[in-house]
């Protein structure tokens, strides 16, 4: 039985024994979806279309895998794999959806996961706890748990455990970036001391997400006094003046060191959403940390949800990871 046949067998067995009974259910109050975003953007970008979530013959989809439990709360992921057996293990990538830390669905990243699987990656789209359920830093705990799950199951799914990346869009980009730069810090990884499996990543892809909550420009949007609370304020449980330590602690820019993983900043033409990446690069450069900045021209925020921007985004990520993983065999 080859690898793909084993994966199919395991997925079917799990379904039979009831290990995948909790599925992603849309919450009417959770409005960050490709459909609602399309309605906001189509007037200014009449040529766009929602990227397809149809799974091609070349890709295998395994849905509703529980990767972490908190009591009765099950966090799940969907896995996308290339069907063609690889000559060796392939790179893995965990994808973190956006939505202002309080909304969004893992299915928002399904089209990108499919595109990456078509290029030979094993891609996992994950559900994590949003701010109306648990505040910061719970989402970081969840992302690290998903990374650990993928590494723990790397042999089963043909993933190279030394080639795992984390990526996210918007708030998910900030979450992914923070998860990637905080290796070895138990505050962000409660499982660290009781697990022999690492949650470290070898690359980070921050898609139009903040790198610094504390800058004046970021606070202009994220600490807007007209919003009570703002999206960031709801996540932190208070405004900047009330929770300065948390706003700083959640900013990836303050964790740069010589061991920081390579980072791709994939940004839109709307600079407010990727604030802090230039300053973060200024810290990375003298330490020799690899980085790349790629902008999708004339694009809105959430560009990765739509054609014609999804495919070039996947190509940029693919080429970045090829370059970064060429030496981590």
TrEMBL record:
Assigned keywords, A-Z = Hydrolase
Record-linked Pfam families: BD-FAE (PF20434)
* Protein name (record): Alpha/beta hydrolase fold domain-containing protein
Q: Name one GO molecular function term.
A: hydrolase activity
Which species is listed as the source?
A: Cellvibrio fontiphilus
Q: Looking at the keywords, is Hydrolase present?
A: yes
Q: Which residues form the BD-FAE-like domain?
A: 77-265
């Amino acid at each position: 039985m080859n690898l793909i046949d084993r994966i199919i067998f395991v997925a079917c067995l799990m379904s039979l024994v009831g290990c995948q009974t909790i599925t992603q259910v849309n919450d009417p109050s959770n409005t960050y979806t490709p459909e609602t975003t399309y309605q906001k953007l189509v007037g200014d970008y009449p040529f766009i279309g929602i990227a397809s979530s149809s799974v091609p013959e070349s890709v295998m989809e395994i849905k509703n895998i529980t990767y972490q439990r908190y009591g009765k709360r099950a966090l799940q992921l969907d896995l996308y794999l290339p069907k063609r057996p690889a000559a060796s293990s392939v790179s893995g990538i965990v994808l973190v959806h956006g939505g202002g830390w309080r909304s969004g669905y893992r299915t928002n990243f399904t089209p990108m996961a499919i595109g990456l699987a078509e290029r030979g990656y094993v891609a996992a789209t994950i559900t994590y706890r949003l701010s109306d359920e648990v505040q910061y830093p719970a989402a970081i705990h969840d992302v690290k748990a998903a990374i650990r799950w993928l590494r723990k199951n790397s042999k089963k799914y043909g993933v190279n455990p030394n080639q795992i990346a984390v990526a996210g869009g918007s708030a998910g980009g900030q979450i992914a970036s923070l998860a990637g730069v905080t290796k070895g810090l138990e505050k962000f990884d409660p499982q660290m001391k009781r697990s022999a499996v690492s949650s470290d990543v070898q690359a980070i892809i921050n898609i139009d997400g903040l790198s610094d909550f504390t800058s004046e420009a970021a606070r202009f949007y994220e600490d807007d006094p007209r919003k009570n609370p703002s999206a960031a304020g709801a996540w932190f449980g208070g405004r900047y003046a009330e929770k300065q330590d948390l706003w700083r602690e959640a900013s990836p820019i303050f964790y740069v060191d010589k061991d920081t993983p390579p980072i791709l900043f994939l940004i839109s033409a709307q600079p407010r959403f990727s604030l802090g990446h230039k300053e973060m690069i200024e810290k990375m450069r003298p330490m020799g940390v690899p980085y790349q900045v790629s902008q999708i021209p004339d694009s809105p925020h959430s560009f990765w949800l739509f054609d014609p921007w999804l495919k070039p985004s996947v190509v940029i990520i693919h080429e970045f990871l090829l370059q970064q993983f060429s030496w981590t065999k």
